[in-house]
Write a structure and sequence with these properties.
Distance between the termini: 41 Å
Order of helices and strands: EHEEHEHEHEH
Number of strands: 6
Structural class: alpha/beta
Strand order of the largest sheet: 3-2-1-4-5-6
CATH architecture: 3-Layer(aba) Sandwich
Number of helices: 5
Length: 136
């Protein structure tokens, strides 16, 4: 699968490395070149520095051929806008966004996006481990 990962902090770099090791073709975009230092030295994917919202950066990332996009920056609004654009403008079939701040999740929900939220997941997982049924 050809995957574009937007954001190269802890989650983005770990995800890109994992997917690359599984044999997927991975490109990572980040606006800060120093963020690519988070990638292990043996990362086999591509990196593109720049603003994800510019055509030049999208072109360099070869977005036209991407099969999946994952937006995992620390900005919920940027993740939502990038993911929405990926689905609507570039017709990317698999789009997933990270929710960083639970207060912004309704905004991301409004776009009908697939959302991963460590806070929501953590709450459900902890209550499950405590043996507390949902709804209590």
């Amino acid at each position: 699968m050809i995957v574009l990962v937007v954001g190269c902090n802890r989650l983005g770099s770990a995800l890109a490395y994992y997917l690359s090791n599984l044999g997927h073709q991975v490109t990572v975009i980040d606006q800060s070149a120093s963020s690519f230092d988070n990638l292990p030295a043996d990362f086999h994917g591509r990196v593109v520095e720049g603003d994800i919202l510019t055509r030049d950066v999208l072109h360099r990332a070869e977005i036209e051929s991407v099969e999946a996009l994952v937006a995992v920056t620390n900005s919920d609004t940027l993740n939502a806008v990038v993911a929405h654009m990926a689905g609507i403008v570039y017709n990317i079939p698999n789009v997933v966004v990270r929710n960083y701040d639970p207060r912004w999740q309704p905004f991301q929900d409004a776009f009908g996006l697939q959302i991963v939220s460590s806070v929501s997941w953590g709450i459900h997982r902890i209550t499950d481990l405590l043996g507390i049924p949902e709804g209590d």
